[in-house]
Design brief:
Elements: H1 26-29, E1 35-37, H2 40-46, H3 48-60, H4 62-91, H5 97-121, H6 123-151, E2 155-157, H7 172-182, H8 197-210
Parallel strand pairs: 1-2
Protein backbone atom coordinates (compact mmCIF):
# COMPACT_ATOMS: atom_id res chain seq x y z
CA UNK A 1 0.00 0.00 0.00
CA UNK A 2 1.03 3.63 -0.32
CA UNK A 3 2.86 5.32 2.51
CA UNK A 4 0.36 7.17 4.65
CA UNK A 5 2.70 9.29 6.71
CA UNK A 6 4.68 11.79 4.66
CA UNK A 7 8.03 13.15 5.87
CA UNK A 8 7.81 16.48 7.63
CA UNK A 9 10.54 17.74 5.38
CA UNK A 10 9.97 17.26 1.68
CA UNK A 11 13.18 16.52 -0.18
CA UNK A 12 14.31 19.37 -2.37
CA UNK A 13 14.31 18.47 -6.03
CA UNK A 14 17.89 18.42 -7.30
CA UNK A 15 18.49 20.72 -10.21
CA UNK A 16 21.02 19.20 -12.55
CA UNK A 17 21.31 22.21 -14.83
CA UNK A 18 20.80 25.82 -13.93
CA UNK A 19 18.71 26.98 -16.84
CA UNK A 20 15.84 29.40 -17.27
CA UNK A 21 13.71 30.58 -20.15
CA UNK A 22 13.77 34.26 -20.91
CA UNK A 23 11.90 36.87 -22.87
CA UNK A 24 12.22 40.49 -23.74
CA UNK A 25 8.76 42.02 -23.57
CA UNK A 26 7.71 44.45 -26.32
CA UNK A 27 8.50 47.40 -24.07
CA UNK A 28 11.96 45.96 -23.37
CA UNK A 29 12.59 45.15 -27.02
CA UNK A 30 11.96 48.76 -28.00
CA UNK A 31 14.42 50.13 -25.46
CA UNK A 32 18.17 49.94 -25.20
CA UNK A 33 18.03 47.79 -22.10
CA UNK A 34 20.12 44.62 -21.99
CA UNK A 35 17.85 42.11 -20.31
CA UNK A 36 18.96 39.07 -18.31
CA UNK A 37 16.90 36.34 -16.68
CA UNK A 38 17.78 34.77 -13.34
CA UNK A 39 16.12 31.70 -11.82
CA UNK A 40 16.64 32.40 -8.12
CA UNK A 41 15.42 29.06 -6.63
CA UNK A 42 17.60 27.08 -9.04
CA UNK A 43 20.64 29.18 -8.21
CA UNK A 44 20.13 28.74 -4.47
CA UNK A 45 19.83 24.94 -4.56
CA UNK A 46 22.80 24.64 -6.92
CA UNK A 47 25.06 26.89 -4.87
CA UNK A 48 28.12 25.41 -3.18
CA UNK A 49 26.90 26.53 0.24
CA UNK A 50 23.52 24.84 -0.19
CA UNK A 51 24.89 21.59 -1.60
CA UNK A 52 27.57 21.34 1.07
CA UNK A 53 25.03 21.95 3.81
CA UNK A 54 22.76 19.25 2.39
CA UNK A 55 25.58 16.73 2.73
CA UNK A 56 26.72 17.89 6.16
CA UNK A 57 23.18 17.86 7.52
CA UNK A 58 22.90 14.11 6.99
CA UNK A 59 25.72 13.63 9.50
CA UNK A 60 25.11 16.48 11.93
CA UNK A 61 21.42 15.65 12.31
CA UNK A 62 21.72 11.89 11.81
CA UNK A 63 20.05 11.16 15.16
CA UNK A 64 16.95 13.23 14.37
CA UNK A 65 16.69 11.84 10.85
CA UNK A 66 16.94 8.26 12.11
CA UNK A 67 14.43 8.89 14.89
CA UNK A 68 11.99 10.35 12.38
CA UNK A 69 12.40 7.43 10.01
CA UNK A 70 11.86 4.92 12.82
CA UNK A 71 8.74 6.75 14.00
CA UNK A 72 7.43 7.05 10.44
CA UNK A 73 7.82 3.31 9.91
CA UNK A 74 5.98 2.57 13.15
CA UNK A 75 3.14 4.93 12.25
CA UNK A 76 2.74 3.34 8.83
CA UNK A 77 2.61 -0.09 10.45
CA UNK A 78 -0.08 1.17 12.80
CA UNK A 79 -2.11 2.77 10.02
CA UNK A 80 -1.96 -0.03 7.47
CA UNK A 81 -4.36 -2.47 9.19
CA UNK A 82 -6.77 0.36 10.00
CA UNK A 83 -6.87 1.47 6.38
CA UNK A 84 -7.29 -2.10 5.17
CA UNK A 85 -10.17 -2.65 7.56
CA UNK A 86 -11.78 0.62 6.47
CA UNK A 87 -11.53 -0.28 2.78
CA UNK A 88 -12.94 -3.76 3.42
CA UNK A 89 -15.86 -2.36 5.42
CA UNK A 90 -16.60 0.27 2.80
CA UNK A 91 -16.73 -2.37 0.07
CA UNK A 92 -19.46 -4.33 1.87
CA UNK A 93 -23.07 -4.02 0.67
CA UNK A 94 -25.12 -1.79 2.93
CA UNK A 95 -22.01 -0.64 4.76
CA UNK A 96 -22.63 1.12 8.07
CA UNK A 97 -21.93 4.75 7.20
CA UNK A 98 -21.74 5.85 10.81
CA UNK A 99 -19.13 3.19 11.55
CA UNK A 100 -17.20 4.15 8.43
CA UNK A 101 -17.14 7.79 9.50
CA UNK A 102 -15.83 6.75 12.90
CA UNK A 103 -13.08 4.64 11.32
CA UNK A 104 -12.14 7.43 8.95
CA UNK A 105 -11.96 9.90 11.83
CA UNK A 106 -9.68 7.54 13.75
CA UNK A 107 -7.35 7.19 10.76
CA UNK A 108 -7.29 10.93 10.15
CA UNK A 109 -6.55 11.65 13.80
CA UNK A 110 -3.69 9.17 13.81
CA UNK A 111 -2.27 10.70 10.63
CA UNK A 112 -2.42 14.23 12.05
CA UNK A 113 -0.84 13.13 15.31
CA UNK A 114 1.91 11.36 13.40
CA UNK A 115 2.62 14.39 11.24
CA UNK A 116 2.89 16.58 14.33
CA UNK A 117 5.31 14.13 15.96
CA UNK A 118 7.49 13.99 12.86
CA UNK A 119 7.55 17.77 12.54
CA UNK A 120 8.63 18.09 16.16
CA UNK A 121 11.40 15.51 15.71
CA UNK A 122 12.63 17.16 12.53
CA UNK A 123 12.27 20.75 13.74
CA UNK A 124 16.06 21.18 14.24
CA UNK A 125 16.65 19.91 10.70
CA UNK A 126 14.11 22.32 9.25
CA UNK A 127 15.60 25.19 11.23
CA UNK A 128 19.06 24.34 9.93
CA UNK A 129 17.83 24.41 6.35
CA UNK A 130 16.12 27.76 6.87
CA UNK A 131 19.30 29.15 8.45
CA UNK A 132 21.46 28.07 5.51
CA UNK A 133 19.00 29.42 2.94
CA UNK A 134 18.81 32.79 4.68
CA UNK A 135 22.60 33.13 4.68
CA UNK A 136 22.61 32.43 0.94
CA UNK A 137 19.72 34.82 0.26
CA UNK A 138 21.55 37.58 2.12
CA UNK A 139 24.29 37.43 -0.54
CA UNK A 140 22.03 36.88 -3.54
CA UNK A 141 21.29 40.51 -4.41
CA UNK A 142 24.99 41.33 -4.43
CA UNK A 143 25.72 38.31 -6.61
CA UNK A 144 23.05 39.32 -9.12
CA UNK A 145 24.27 42.92 -9.24
CA UNK A 146 27.90 41.86 -9.65
CA UNK A 147 27.04 39.45 -12.47
CA UNK A 148 24.83 41.99 -14.25
CA UNK A 149 27.48 44.71 -14.14
CA UNK A 150 30.22 42.33 -15.24
CA UNK A 151 28.22 41.22 -18.29
CA UNK A 152 26.72 44.60 -19.15
CA UNK A 153 23.09 43.86 -18.33
CA UNK A 154 20.95 46.79 -17.26
CA UNK A 155 17.77 44.91 -16.31
CA UNK A 156 17.32 41.55 -14.59
CA UNK A 157 13.99 39.67 -14.44
CA UNK A 158 12.80 36.30 -13.20
CA UNK A 159 11.34 33.45 -15.31
CA UNK A 160 7.89 34.29 -13.91
CA UNK A 161 7.56 37.13 -16.44
CA UNK A 162 9.26 35.30 -19.29
CA UNK A 163 7.77 33.36 -22.19
CA UNK A 164 10.61 33.12 -24.68
CA UNK A 165 14.10 34.46 -25.29
CA UNK A 166 17.44 33.51 -26.72
CA UNK A 167 19.83 31.60 -24.47
CA UNK A 168 22.08 34.66 -24.35
CA UNK A 169 19.66 36.25 -21.87
CA UNK A 170 20.26 33.49 -19.31
CA UNK A 171 22.51 34.82 -16.52
CA UNK A 172 22.10 31.92 -14.07
CA UNK A 173 25.61 30.56 -14.31
CA UNK A 174 27.18 33.99 -13.92
CA UNK A 175 25.12 34.68 -10.79
CA UNK A 176 25.92 31.22 -9.44
CA UNK A 177 29.65 31.86 -9.89
CA UNK A 178 29.36 35.19 -8.08
CA UNK A 179 27.29 33.64 -5.28
CA UNK A 180 29.80 30.83 -4.76
CA UNK A 181 32.56 33.40 -4.50
CA UNK A 182 30.63 35.44 -1.93
CA UNK A 183 29.52 32.48 0.21
CA UNK A 184 31.38 29.26 -0.58
CA UNK A 185 29.99 27.65 2.58
CA UNK A 186 27.33 28.47 5.17
CA UNK A 187 27.05 27.82 8.87
CA UNK A 188 24.95 24.70 9.34
CA UNK A 189 23.74 24.96 12.94
CA UNK A 190 21.82 28.13 13.86
CA UNK A 191 22.69 29.91 17.11
CA UNK A 192 20.53 29.35 20.16
CA UNK A 193 17.18 31.11 19.82
CA UNK A 194 17.58 31.91 16.13
CA UNK A 195 14.35 32.29 14.15
CA UNK A 196 13.80 32.63 10.39
CA UNK A 197 13.47 36.19 9.10
CA UNK A 198 9.72 35.93 8.57
CA UNK A 199 9.13 34.98 12.20
CA UNK A 200 11.51 37.70 13.42
CA UNK A 201 9.60 40.27 11.40
CA UNK A 202 6.28 39.00 12.74
CA UNK A 203 7.54 39.28 16.30
CA UNK A 204 8.86 42.78 15.67
CA UNK A 205 5.54 43.84 14.16
CA UNK A 206 3.63 42.35 17.08
CA UNK A 207 5.91 44.10 19.58
CA UNK A 208 5.49 47.41 17.77
CA UNK A 209 1.72 47.01 17.80
CA UNK A 210 1.71 46.47 21.55
CA UNK A 211 3.58 49.69 22.29
CA UNK A 212 1.27 52.46 23.53
CA UNK A 213 0.73 55.26 21.07
CA UNK A 214 2.40 58.54 21.97
CA UNK A 215 -0.21 61.14 22.91
CA UNK A 216 0.26 64.53 21.24
CA UNK A 217 1.11 67.34 23.63
CA UNK A 218 -1.62 69.91 24.19
CA UNK A 219 -1.03 73.50 25.11
CA UNK A 220 -3.10 75.21 27.73
CA UNK A 221 -5.02 78.39 27.06
Amino acid sequence: MKTLIKPALAAVLAVTAVTAPAIATPAMAQSNERVAVVNVPAIIVNSSAYQTAQTQRQTTYAAQLQQAETRRTALNAQLEPLVSAFNAARAQPNADQAALQQQAAQIQQLQQTGQAELQQILAPVALSQAYVEEQIQDQLSTAIENAARAQGYTLVVTPDVVLFAEASHNMNQAVLDQLNALIPAAQLVPPQGWLPRELREQQAAAAAGQQPATQPATSGR
